[in-house]
Design goal:
Largest sheet: 7 strands, mixed
Strand order of the largest sheet: 9-8-7-6-10-11-12
Shape: globular
Oligomer: single chain
Number of strands: 12
Order of helices and strands: HHEEEHEHEHHEHEEHHEHEEHEHHHHH
Bound molecules: glutamic acid
CATH superfamily of the largest domain: NAD(P)-binding Rossmann-like Domain
Strand content: 15-25%
């Protein structure tokens, strides 16, 4: 994963070279502002004590308080969280939100914990990082294997520590505990708006657009469900245990109901009559799903799914990055050479943090919006930024990822420039505020 950071850095160097920014921007964005590691003691149900490693990294706060999710996953490391915190910084800038970027994580397999253990771990994590978060400082949210219930526990723990209710400290909370309507489906919904903008531009007809979706967590599920409702053909779905394929299309909402009963998609093969009648599907592996001949490959699982090892075998016409970092730098170069456009994560999955921003605004105003207002505003942010990024890619004849980074980094650079750069202090450019 430290590999990932190096790869990001070399990509970023290209972006800086393209943009006319001060070297100070490069220097400022070379490392995170704050990285905290905590060891979280948790009393387990069997009476033993276990200690879990947790992290919170605040990458850059020039544009506002830092913002980003917390993941619970066995592979979490400080390097991974740092790379993700940088991507959050860029993402918030791409979406035009008044936030910097951060990320958190705990190295744990949450599927092995009881609900009570999970609650104790979530509260312990907040006790560990309480000093560096706050509604005007750093605002956590859900990410891989965390959800609204966990955000509710974390928020409550923060209230206990601070002895006051400040719901703007965490977003993605349950609706009855100050969460925003529309937050749960926001990442998937935002990704669909992106795809629709792209489809319009490329002249893709939803009915003739086959989509394979890797990952059936919150983002993947809502994306698949909404894309199906919008008339796209979802031909394949997978979760961490395997996948299913049906040329005629699958109904994600129905599949989810069965997954909840059976706990894994593969079990669908031996499913009861109702689902088997719904569509004739066959079992496929995750690797097979990635290599399907489809119009759109939507990646909604984890990082590094398309790499130098399999990029030559991708048959999709375009790739939609709903997860963070699912195509690594080497994979990205190969897809670019093969003219397979990649709609990049920092734009495609920004819907989650966009609605997190709406939640934070509602919490601070103490006034709540109806779902239509949330969804309308989400749509207008996603469409507006997508158009800007697409236009930039055309104008500068670069990949969509380069265009998104140029767009986001230009906003971050603007903020850094406004604080004065070496050129300003050395008198090479005129100041307006000191005459
Ligand atoms: N975890 C999500 C992301 O990677 C959401 C972050 C947030 O809402 O702060 O964008």
């Amino acid at each position: 994963m430290s590999e990932q950071r190096t790869q990001t850095q070399s990509f970023l160097d290209e972006v800086f070279d393209q943009l006319d920014v001060s070297d100070d921007v490069r220097t400022r964005l070379a490392q995170p502002k704050l990285a905290l590691t905590v060891n979280i003691p948790v009393r387990m149900d069997d009476g033993t004590l276990q200690v879990f490693k947790g992290f919170r990294v605040q990458f850059d706060d020039t544009r506002g308080p830092t913002k980003g999710g917390v993941r619970f996953h066995p592979r979490v490391t400080l390097e991974e969280v740092t790379a993700l915190s940088f991507w959050m910084t860029v993402k918030c800038a791409v979406a035009g939100l008044p936030f910097g970027g951060a990320k958190g994580g705990v190295a744990v397999d949450p599927k092995r914990l009881s609900r009570l253990e999970l609650e104790r771990l979530s509260r312990g994590y907040i006790r560990g990082i309480a000093d560096i978060i706050g509604p005007k400082r750093d605002i956590p949210a859900p990410d891989v294997y965390t959800n609204a219930t966990i955000m509710g526990w974390m928020t409550d723990e923060y209230y206990q520590i601070r002895r006051q209710q400040t719901p703007g400290v965490i977003t993605g909370k349950p609706v009855h505990l100050g969460g925003s309507l529309g937050r749960t489906s926001a990442t998937g919904r935002g990704a669909l708006h992106l795809l629709q903008q792209w489809a319009q531009r490329q002249g893709l007809q939803p009915k003739r657009t086959r989509i394979a979706v890797q990952g059936f967590g919150n983002a993947g599920y809502h994306f698949a469900r909404l894309a199906h409702e919008a008339g796209f053909r979802i031909v394949a779905l997978s979760d961490s245990r395997g996948g299913i394929y049906a040329e005629d299309g699958l109904d994600p909402a129905l599949i989810m109901r069965h997954k909840l009963n059976r706990r894994e998609l593969k079990a669908m093969l031996y499913c009861d009559a109702s689902v088997c009648e719904e569509a004739d599907h066959k079992e496929i592996s995750n690797a097979e799903l990635l290599e399907l001949d489809v119009e759109v490959l939507a990646l909604a699982a984890l990082e590094d799914q398309i790499t130098a090892d399999n990029a030559e075998r991708i048959h999709a016409d375009q790739v939609l990055e709903i997860a963070n970092g699912p195509v690594d730098a080497a994979g990205d170069r190969i897809l670019a050479q093969r003219d397979i456009p990649v709609l990049p994560d920092v734009l495609v999955n920004a819907g989650g943090v966009v609605v997190s921003h709406f939640e934070w605004v509602q919490n601070r105003a103490g006034e709540y919006w109806d779902e239509a207002r949330v969804n309308d505003r989400l749509k207008s942010v996603m469409e507006g930024e997508a158009k800007r990024v697409f236009a930039l890619a055309d104008e500068q004849n670069c990949t969509l990822r380069s265009a998104a980074y140029r767009h986001g980094v230009a906003r971050i650079a603007g903020a850094i420039h406004d604080q004065g750069t070496r050129e300003y202090f050395q008198g090479a450019i005129e100041g307006t505020n000191v005459e």
